[in-house]
Each structure stands twice: as structure tokens, then as C-alpha cells.
Specification:
The chain has 466 residues and is of the alpha/beta class. The protein contains 18 helices and 14 strands. It has helices spanning 15-19, 58-62, 75-78, 88-97, 99-102, 110-113, 131-139, 176-191, 200-209, 220-227, 232-246, 251-266, 270-285, 299-305, 320-330, 337-340, 374-388, 425-439; strands at 2-7, 27-31, 34-43, 48-56, 117-127, 145-152, 162-174, 289-293, 312-317, 343-347, 362-366, 392-398, 442-448, 459-465.
């Protein structure tokens, strides 16, 4: 079975440092079930590919096991697909051979290990119980572009139809450690089998390698059940702990942090200016159906509902509690029927495509992206620009250059303790340009707040149109 990992990061040969494997020296590793070989079919500054080839010894798999009895004896244990397809053997090899990279560490290139890079992973033969649709439901929400070619049962006998085996290529802008973690967990999930006993320690492995992505994955229940070989008690434990990990920040703490940011910006009335600017652009562009992603407590929704030109207003947020506050503040239960039909609140994640979000004239993303972890930004980009794909996108974010004008804000700190980053105008414009080039939009920028001649406006607004 063969897995290849390719990158076009410059210089691409840095992949050797990330994997801790020298491109100039093929290596072999003994495993309990056979040998793992690592070599580089190509290694240049423009593109480098590392290959992990497993040679599974079918005799080693059954050595010491009692006969299964019945017709054929142990023949079915010797003659099967295990030496040829990606399965839990590949997961074990990833942890043994690329363990440091899997953990997200690199001694020689720590900064590269911590940042998303362009990667392509190819599995020559991957069993997919559940077919291509299940394969896509596992990997596409993580931000990958999936290419799958299904193999026939026998190319010489077309009447036999297709097999459950695919050649699969995953392409994405992702940290190497995250890519390896996704493969480690999801390969045996697709195979729906494991070659070893599954006990309590497998729950710990699932939670460790699923940290940061599994809790919010739309297929997390199926992933947990299959990864744990349908041992219901273990799956319940894993899902229960995931639910705890996914729980939103305690309401009191989040409200305190929001209040800190509100006090910081209150002198400028920035929130009101943001909402008014967004409203004006939506009105000028004639948008009637609007979805507010990361709607929070519904301030923009409330403003939109006052204008009858907006015939449908939908808000989505990941926090149940925040949506409850929004519902109370909007007074949805007390609205007349005609008014209530114009508004809807949805619980959902910004990282996974959602059919409920398609077909809108405009999407607003107000002071949201700076709260997203950079490694997951790529997934959000695809959800917004590729899958939701409204005709108009209005997106605001702080202008980091303006922070020096907040005298109470210590140098080098963000406006909100939950911000993962704050971009300068040049950084924001460069990101927006990449989105336009990649997804077929145009963009213009508007200042929000007083436009300081030296550092710009406190808030940046990008208006994307297609």
C-alpha cells in the first residue's frame, strides 16, 4: 500500500525537515506486521514528494493466532486485501515512522510545522465502505479538495461492476500535523475495520488526534463509532468527552471579554458605524435575502428587519446560548406572523458547508474571521466563497495598524483576548486578492470609522462581488 505526500511550498525540499526524513536517503523500518519504506520520488525546490510504502507480511499477521476453523481454515487470513489497501496498518505506520510530524513538531523548521502549507496526499488504494459520498463527507468539511477514482472489481469483466476501492487525492492548505492526523483517524474509519484489539486507550488516541477538528465535524458520531469498531460504550464515552471539549466558553467569561472590546471601541461608536456601513452597502446593492454568519446576539439582524427591502434575514452562530440571547433580544416569539417569516436563526459552524446557507443575495461576516484559528481559515474560505457563494460578501475585521491609537491598549496586544490574529491593511488586502483569484470574485475596500491619515480607519470592510 502506498501513500505519497507532496508540497509546492518553496523550497519544497523543506518537506524532508518536516517529516524528519532525508530526501537523499531511502529508509526502511521494521513494524510488527512487515516493513515500511520511506523514499522521495521527486525532490526539487519547486515540488517535493515523499512516499510511504508498506509491505505487509500476511504470515506475520496470523503467526500465533489460532485457526479460525471452518472451511478453508486460515486461508482467508492469508489471502485478503490487507497487504494492498490503506487501512489501520497505514495509521500505525504513520505514528511509528512520522510520529514527530504527526505531533505537529519540527526541530529544524518549527515555524513551518506551525503554519498551513500547500499539500497533496495520494492514497493508491483506499477502501471506502459507504462509497464516494461518505469519503467526501469526511474530508471536504476539513477544507480538502477531494479527487476519487473508483476501481472496477475486474476490468476484464465490466458486468461485475465497481468495487469499494478508490484511488484518492486530497489537496489543501493545511498544517502537516493536521493532515497526518486526519489520515491517521479517517483511513480506518473508511475501511470500517482495525487489525488490532480496540480498548480504552483507543478513545484517548481518537481524542488526541482529533483535537481541534473532530468535535465540530458533522460526521463525528459515525467517525467515533467506526474508529472504535462499533464498541458502543467506548463511542459514547468519546462523544461525551467531545461534547465537553466543544462546549462554548462560559457565558460570563465571554461576556467579560466582549465588554472589554466594547469599552475599548466605545469612544468611536465603532459597532454602530460598522452596522450602518454594512446596511448602506446592502441597500445600495439591492440585496433582499441576507445571511449573517457569526451573527452573535443579532444586532445586525435587528437593523435589517427594520427595512422591508430585506425580505429574508438569516443568522447563524456556533453558540446555542448566543442564539438564545439573539432570539430574546429580537423578540421573535412576539413578532407578527409576517415579520416572523422574514427571520430565522440557525445553529451551525463556519467550517462546514451547509445547504441551508446557499442561494442568498448577500452574506455578512462582521468581526468574525479574527476569532478563527489560522490553520482552519482555509476551511472557512471554502465554506464562504465556494459553497455558500452569495453574489455579495461583506466582511469586516480590525485594522491592526490603528491599535496604536487606543492609548489603553498595551503595545503588541489584540483588541479582544479571543482574537487569533489582527491584520494590517496590506495583509487584509493580500488575503482578499487571493480569495478573488481563487474563487472568481472582485473586491473593493471601505474604511469604517475615522480614516486616520497615518494608520487608516479602525475597521476594514471588504466588499466582494461576483
Amino acid at each position: 500500500m502506498l501513500l505519497t505526500l507532496s508540497t509546492t511550498h518553496t523550497p519544497a525540499t523543506d518537506l524532508g525537515y518536516l517529516l524528519h526524513k532525508n530526501p537523499d536517503r531511502p529508509q526502511s523500518f521494521e513494524l510488527p506486521f512487515g516493513l515500511a519504506h520511506v523514499f522521495y520520488p521527486e525532490a526539487s525546490a519547486g515540488r517535493t514528494t515523499a512516499a510511504l510504502l508498506l509491505e505487509v507480511d500476511p504470515v506475520a499477521l496470523v503467526r500465533g493466532r489460532p485457526s479460525s476453523g471452518g472451511q478453508g481454515g486460515t486461508l482467508d487470513q492469508y489471502v485478503n486485501d490487507r497487504p494492498y489497501v490503506a487501512s489501520s496498518f497505514m495509521s500505525v505506520a504513520l505514528s511509528r515512522v512520522f510520529g514527530t510530524a504527526l505531533s505537529g513538531r519540527s526541530k529544524d523548521r518549527p515555524e513551518l510545522a506551525a503554519q498551513p502549507l500547500p499539500f497533496s496526499a495520494r492514497l493508491s488504494v483506499l477502501p471506502c465502505r459507504g462509497g464516494e459520498s461518505f469519503l467526501r463527507r469526511l474530508f471536504e468539511p476539513l477544507g480538502y479538495t477531494v479527487t476519487a477514482t473508483r476501481h472496477a472489481l475486474d476490468e476484464t469483466v465490466p458486468a461485475w461492476g465497481d468495487s469499494r476501492y478508490f484511488t484518492v487525492t486530497l489537496e489543501g492548505h493545511v498544517r502537516l500535523g493536521d493532515l497526518l492526523s486526519h489520515l491517521y483517524v479517517l483511513i480506518p474509519v473508511l475501511d470500517d475495520d482495525k487489525h488490532y484489539w480496540v480498548g480504552d486507550e483507543e478513545v484517548e488516541k481518537l481524542l488526541r488526534h482529533g483535537e481541534g477538528w473532530l468535535a465540530a465535524h458533522p460526521e463525528r458520531e459515525q467517525i467515533a463509532r467506526r474508529y472504535l469498531r462499533h464498541r458502543h460504550s467506548l463511542a459514547r464515552e468519546a462523544l461525551g468527552r467531545l461534547a465537553g471539549d466543544e462546549a462554548p466558553e462560559p457565558e460570563e467569561r465571554q461576556e467579560t471579554r466582549n465588554a472589554e472590546e466594547a469599552v475599548l471601541e466605545s469612544r468611536l461608536s465603532l459597532n454602530e458605524q460598522r452596522l450602518q456601513t454594512v446596511m448602506t452597502v446592502l441597500q445600495e446593492q439591492g440585496a433582499a435575502r441576507v445571511v449573517d454568519l457569526g451573527c452573535g446576539e443579532g444586532r445586525l439582524i435587528k437593523a435589517l428587519l427594520k427595512d422591508r427591502r430585506f425580505t429574508e434575514v438569516v443568522g447563524m452562530d456556533v453558540s446555542h446560548r448566543t442564539l438564545e440571547i439573539a432570539q430574546d433580544r429580537l423578540g421573535i416569539d412576539k413578532m407578527p406572523d409576517m415579520q416572523r417569516q422574514r427571520v430565522k436563526l440557525l445553529h451551525g459552524s463556519l467550517f462546514y458547508r451547509d445547504q441551508r446557507l446557499t442561494g442568498f443575495d448577500a452574506a455578512t461576516v462582521i468581526e468574525v474571521i479574527e476569532h478563527l484559528d489560522l490553520p482552519r481559515l482555509a476551511a472557512f474560505e471554502r465554506v464562504l466563497f465556494e459553497h455558500t457563494r452569495p453574489g455579495l460578501i461583506l466582511l469586516t475585521t480590525p485594522n491592526a495598524e490603528y491599535n496604536v491609537r487606543f492609548t489603553s491598549l498595551p503595545a503588541g496586544t489584540f483588541r479582544h483576548r479571543d482574537h487569533r490574529f489582527e491584520w494590517t491593511r496590506a495583509e487584509f488586502e493580500a488575503w482578499a486578492a487571493r480569495m478573488c483569484e481563487r474563487f472568481g470574485y472582485t473586491v473593493r475596500f471601505l474604511p469604517v470609522g475615522e480614516n486616520d491619515a497615518e494608520v487608516g480607519a479602525p475597521t476594514q470592510l471588504a466588499v466582494f462581488a461576483r
